[in-house]
């Protein structure tokens, strides 16, 4: 990828990347995957005219999280650029993160107390409504503004999620985020005590322990959200923007905060909009179409239903997207890519290591190799099985944004 900085060129082409989160699957009924079960005439028609294949998000056999999965398809080596979940959550909620900060993702949780010890009853506090989250978080922020000279910034997310940023008065050494999660990952257990793996991280952990103590006291009378579990302590990494790396004016259209955060981290403008449907995303895309070169549109529910083991729900979301696909195509992007950040087979109820279907459509592809947009049909395509980190390079080439290399 280092050669790109010398051969990238700008033009007026438009690149549209649509990510159906957790798109890939495994046979779940009658030997067919969710994509194979779905009625997708528009996707199938586009696949026939496109370069198709499968991509590997990180490496063979490696199951990626959403962060590495998206970084790869944005063109960043997910092994080189490791980004903590706390940073993604904070950025996605509109917190400007800087070099003096430690960010962490929080879950409101339900605990009961036995002999003075907290025991986790529900790790997600019954997925409380977002409005309830906002009420509780406002109260916390009003009562916890600073701990030992460290500013505390708390922002509500969706349902039970929130982000907390601990803003220290000076820049923190690398490794200051090496603190364990407090979520025990199981009900019936005590929350874990945050401890630093090195002296710098332990200084941060001391502040975090005081925060948990204060928050628990404030929340103790809440019916459901009476505790906070913390995951993904992280510092802001040094990562080039898509403008710097690829010469692209890029934007993001997404509903969930983490994906907004990831897009923001690589320099995309996050487009805020009302609503959460695919139709809302289409309308937002139309409004900003003339302003950018590269458009990242994220669709979450394919992943959510996969994690729930609900293959029928995942099939319906794929079919819903298929109905909206002509509206995306009406914008006449010069290059359109449709893929997922990773596979989330309903069979496994979670992310997996399986390669992810991808199609790339432009005037400069061979096409004519796949009859449908499914895992098996994409395996027949001209892209073969490729590393996700090469996808952006191919999009640039199809947009005629790369000069010839060498004499």
Write the layout of secondary structure elements.
Elements lengths: L3 H4 L7 E6 L13 H4 L3 H8 L2 E6 L9 H9 L10 H8 L8 E14 L2 E6 L7 H14 L2 E2 L2 E7 L4 E7 L31 H21 L7 E8 L7 H5 L3 E4 L3 H9 L3 E2 L7 H11 L5 E6 L1 H8 L2 H19 L5 E5 L16 E6 L13 H4 L5 E4 L3 H8 L9
Parallel strand pairs: 1-11, 1-12, 2-14, 9-10, 9-11
Antiparallel strand pairs: 2-13, 3-4, 3-7, 3-8, 5-6, 6-7, 12-13
Helix pairs in contact: 5-9, 10-12, 11-12
Describe the model.
The protein is of the alpha/beta class and 407 residues long. The chain folds into two domains: 4-81 and 238-398, Alkaline Phosphatase, subunit A, CATH 3.40.720.10; 88-234, no CATH class. It has 14 helices and 14 strands. The strands form two sheets. It has an eight-stranded mixed beta sheet, with helices on both faces. Strands 3, 4, 5, 6, 7 and 8 form a six-stranded antiparallel beta sheet that branches. Helix 10 (278-288) packs parallel to helix 12. The radius of gyration is 22 Å and the shape is globular. The chain starts with a helix and ends in a 9-residue tail after the last helix. 50% of the residues are buried.
Characteristic terms for this protein:
single chain, 407 residues, alpha/beta, Alkaline Phosphatase, subunit A, 2 domains, 8-stranded mixed sheet, 6-stranded antiparallel sheet, 14 helices
Quick recap:
This protein has 407 residues and is an alpha/beta fold.
